[in-house]
Design goal:
Layout: H1 6-28, H2 33-41, E1 45-47, E2 52-56, E3 62-64, H3 65-78, E4 82-85, E5 91-96, H4 101-110, E6 127-128, H5 143-153, E7 168-171, E8 185-191, E9 197-203, E10 215-222, H6 226-240, H7 251-258, H8 260-273, H9 276-279, H10 283-291, H11 305-314, H12 316-325, E11 326-328, E12 334-339, E13 350-352, H13 353-366, E14 370-373, E15 379-385, H14 389-398, E16 413-414, H15 429-438, H16 442-448, E17 453-456, E18 470-477, E19 480-487, E20 499-500, E21 505-506, H17 510-524, H18 531-538, H19 541-548
Parallel strand pairs: 6-7, 7-8, 16-17, 17-18
Antiparallel strand pairs: 1-2, 2-5, 3-14, 4-5, 4-13, 8-9, 9-10, 11-12, 12-15, 14-15, 18-19, 19-20, 19-21
Helix pairs in contact: 1-2, 1-4, 3-13, 6-8, 7-8, 11-12, 15-17, 17-18, 17-19
C-alpha cells in the first residue's frame, strides 16, 4: 500500500491546524453555520439529522492494520462504538461532537489518513478494484495510477470548485469490480496487441435522480497521456457543465445534452492546446509512485495445502464460507478473503470497534498488514495463505464476521437512510434487515444464487439501487414511507440501469414484493441461470404481473 511522503505529511498537518481554528470560531459563535458549512465540507464533515458526521477517505480502498486500529479507537473514544463503511470505500462516523473532530483528524494524520476529497464540489475519493494487486485477471495493479490521479487532483487550482462533485473509478481487470460505468470518469487499464499499457476512458456515468451508463470516450489512451487526457476532460466539464441548476450540473448531463461525438471533438481540441511536455506521465514518474507502494514477498506454501483441502471436506460450514467468500489469488498458494459486514438481520456496512480490531489483527498476522474496503461495503484480506484460512475463519466466527453470503441476496448494499441522513425520504436499514431475515437460510441462498439487492433512502442513490439486480428506492408520499422497485440493474461489465416495476409499496409490503419477484424468477429460470440473465431473457412483464396482477396496478 502507499506510504506518505514529506509533502503528504506536511500538507495534512497544516490542514488539521487550519480546520481546528475554524471549528473554534464556529463553536465560539464568531462564524455562523452557513459560513462554516463550506469549510467543514472541505474536511469531510456533514451535519446529519442527529449529530455531525465525519467521512474519512480510504483512497482506492486500501488500509493497513494500524490504520484500521486507529479507526477502531476513534469509534470507541469519540463515537458510539461502531462506524459505517460506504460505497465509495470510505468510512463514516455518525455521532461526533464538533469539538472532537479536530482531535480526530490529528489522530488520523498520525497513521497517514485524512478526510480530504470526501465532500464538496471537487474530485472525490478515487475508488478502485478491491482485489487490485492480487487478482489473477488484471493487467497491472491500478492503485498506483489511482494515486497519481489523487496527487494530481488534490487542490488542483483549476478543478477545486467544479459545477458539482466528480467521481473517478479505475480498474485493470477484465471483470469490472469497480463499477466504472456509473462514474463521471471510469478508467480501465489494459494492454494492446503489442503488450503496451493504456487506458479505456468512459465518461458520463452516474446514478442519482438521472441515472446514466457512461459512454466510451476513447478505447485506448497511451499511458504517458493519462494526465493530459484527464485534464482535457475536466476542462471541458468545468467550462460547460451546468452551474445554473445543481440537478443538471453533473458531466452525465453534459454528455447527454451535447452528445458523445461532439464532446469527444471538443476534448480532442482541448488536448491539442495542451503542451504535452507539461503533462507527460513519464516512466520515471510511474516507477517512483510504484516504489511508494509496499508489495509483500509471498512464500510458497503448497506443501501445507493438503490440510486445507481435508478441512474443507470435513467441515461443512468452513467449506461453505470458502466457496462463497474466498476467491483465487494470483499466487496459487493464497486466497483473497472477503469478510461480510452483512450478518443476517444486521446493518449493512457497519462494524463495531471490536470487529475492526479483530480484522486489523487478522490482517497483521495473516495478510501482510493490509486490508481493503469494497464498494459493496465489505472488507477484504488480500494475502491469506490457504493453510491459514481455517484459523482466519474461526476467528471471524467468534466475532460475528463469518457470514458466507458474498454476492448473495443478504449481501445488501444500503445507505444509512432516514435513520441518519438529513437528505433521506425513507429508512433503508430496517428494510435491509427484514429482507436479510426473510431470505436467511443457506438453502434459500443456494436456491436464489448470484444476486445484488441494493437499497437507497432517497433519489441521491447512495445505496446504488439503480444498478442492483433488484433495487429498492425509498420515497415519501403524503407523509408515509413508500418503496419503489427496480429490476435488471447491473454494475459490472454489462452495466445497466434497472427498470421501475410500477407503483411503490408501503414499508410493510415491500419485503413481500421482493419475495414475489424472487419466486417468479425461480419458476422462470433455466438451469443454473442467474436472476439477471433470466430477467434479460423474459423481460419485465412476468414480474410486473406477479407484483400487481394482470392489470399492472398495485
Amino acid at each position: 500500500m502507499y506510504r506518505y511522503d514529506e509533502f503528504d505529511k506536511a500538507f495534512v498537518s497544516a490542514r488539521v491546524a487550519e480546520f481546528s481554528d475554524q471549528v473554534k470560531r464556529r463553536i465560539s459563535g464568531e462564524m455562523t453555520e452557513e459560513e462554516f458549512m463550506p469549510l467543514r465540507l472541505r474536511n469531510g464533515v456533514y451535519l446529519q439529522l442527529h449529530a455531525y458526521m465525519l467521512r474519512v477517505a480510504i483512497p482506492y480502498g486500501t488500509l493497513s492494520s494500524d490504520q484500521m486500529r486507529k479507526l477502531s479507537d476513534i469509534a470507541i473514544s469519540y463515537d458510539r462504538g461502531y462506524a459505517h463503511f460506504t460505497t465509495r470505500q470510505n468510512i463514516q462516523f455518525n455521532w461526533l461532537g464538533l469539538n472532537d473532530i479536530p482531535k480526530i483528524l490529528s489522530e488520523l494524520a498520525e497513521v497517514e489518513m485524512h478526510a480530504i476529497q470526501t465532500s464538496g464540489n471537487c474530485i472525490r475519493n478515487i475508488t478502485s478494484d478491491p482485489f487490485a494487486g492480487v487478482a489473477a485477471d488484471e493487467s497491472v495493479d491500478p492503485r498506483p495510477y489511482a494515486e497519481i490521479l489523487r496527487q494530481w487532483s488534490l487542490l488542483h487550482p483549476e478543478f477545486s470548485y467544479l459545477p458539482r462533485k466528480f467521481k473517478f473509478s479505475i480498474t485493470a481487470s477484465k471483470s469490472d469490480r469497480a463499477a466504472i460505468q456509473v462514474h463521471d470518469i471510469g478508467i480501465q487499464i489494459k494492454r494492446d496487441l503489442s503488450g503496451e499499457l493504456g487506458f479505456s476512458f468512459y465518461i458520463g456515468g452516474g446514478q442519482g435522480r438521472t441515472p446514466m451508463v457512461a459512454k466510451l470516450l476513447c478505447d485506448f489512451v497511451p499511458i504517458e497521456d493519462l494526465l493530459r487526457y484527464v485534464t482535457a476532460v475536466m476542462r471541458i466539464y468545468n467550462l460547460y457543465g451546468r452551474r445554473d441548476n445543481k440537478y443538471k450540473a453533473r458531466i452525465k448531463i453534459l454528455v447527454h445534452e451535447t452528445g458523445i461525438k461532439e464532446l469527444r471533438e471538443g476534448i480532442e481540441r482541448e488536448l491539442s492546446s495542451l503542451r504535452k511536455e507539461d503533462l507527460v506521465l513519464s516512466r520515471e514518474d510511474i516507477d517512483a509512485i510504484f516504489r511508494y507502494f509496499r508489495y509483500p514477498i509471498l512464500d510458497s506454501r503448497s506443501s501445507q495445502n493438503s490440510n486445507f483441502r481435508s478441512l474443507r471436506l470435513s467441515n461443512e460450514s468452513f467449506n461453505r464460507w470458502v466457496h462463497q467468500n474466498v476467491i483465487p489469488h494470483k499466487h496459487i498458494d493464497y486466497g483473497i478473503v472477503t469478510i461480510s459486514l452483512k450478518p443476517i438481520g444486521g446493518i449493512p456496512g457497519d462494524a463495531t470497534s471490536k470487529q475492526m480490531n479483530i480484522v486489523a489483527d487478522l490482517a497483521e498476522r495473516y495478510s501482510c498488514n493490509e486490508l481493503r474496503v469494497t464498494y459493496q461495503q465489505n472488507l477484504v484480506l488480500p494475502y491469506v495463505a490457504l493453510e491459514d484460512l481455517y484459523n482466519v475463519y474461526n476467528k471471524l466466527v467468534d466475532y460475528g464476521l463469518a457470514t458466507a453470503n458474498i454476492n448473495q441476496i443478504s449481501d445488501i448494499i444500503a445507505c444509512p437512510g432516514l435513520d441518519y441522513c438529513s437528505l433521506a425520504n425513507a429508512r433503508s436499514i430496517p428494510i435491509a434487515q427484514e429482507v436479510s431475515k426473510r431470505f436467511s437460510t443457506y438453502e434459500r441462498h443456494m436456491e436464489i444464487g448470484d444476486m445484488r439487492l441494493n437499497i437507497s433512502g432517497c433519489i441521491n442513490a447512495c445505496g446504488h439501487h439503480h444498478v442492483g439486480h433488484i433495487g429498492i428506492l425509498g420515497v415519501e408520499k403524503k407523509g408515509h414511507e413508500y418503496y419503489q422497485l427496480t429490476l435488471g440493474g447491473d454494475a459490472g461489465n454489462s452495466c445497466a440501469i434497472g427498470e421501475i416495476t410500477g407503483p411503490g409499496f408501503p414499508a410493510d409490503e415491500i419485503v413481500n414484493a421482493v419475495e414475489r419477484v424472487i419466486n417468479t424468477y425461480v419458476l422462470l429460470r433455466k438451469t443454473n441461470e442467474r436472476f439477471i440473465d433470466t430477467y434479460r431473457r423474459v423481460g419485465m412483464i412476468p414480474f410486473r404481473h406477479a407484483l400487481y396482477g394482470k392489470s399492472g396496478k398495485a
